[in-house]
Design brief:
5 helices, 2 domains, Alpha-Beta Plaits, single chain, alpha+beta
Length: about 150
Amino acid sequence: MTTFKNVVTTLSVTLVFFGVILMLVPETKMKRSFVSFASVVLVTCVIVSLSMTDKIIDDIDLDLHTDRSYYENIAEIGIETEAEAARSAVKKVVVDALKKEGVEFYEVSVTVDIFDDTSISIGEVLILCSAEDKNISENILKDLGLNGRVTVN
């Protein structure tokens, strides 16, 4: 990165230097000669800079990860995030259905299974509720198409 910074600084200083001198030179044939000379110097600087592009690119740290485990860890985190999102969504649906039916529940937990092919499946929904609301809770699970157990507190 330092090489890139040096090239940009050199070009900038050169342009400013020639700009200042160009303003000081009077409108004569000498000015045209100076503009031609400045153009040649500037083109030379650009050519030298372009020849250094390999060095500049080598200096830039692209932070490429060649270790496969790095990408596997990212994929695993993504799958776990999706599983947690599925768990939360199913729990919200069950809780909303229980509230809608007026069921007094103490806890709703959802298990999510992640398979080797990274597919996600809702394992089981566990509802902890009062004895009088057990049948309603079981019917809600059945209506939602979820496997689950209802336990009485």
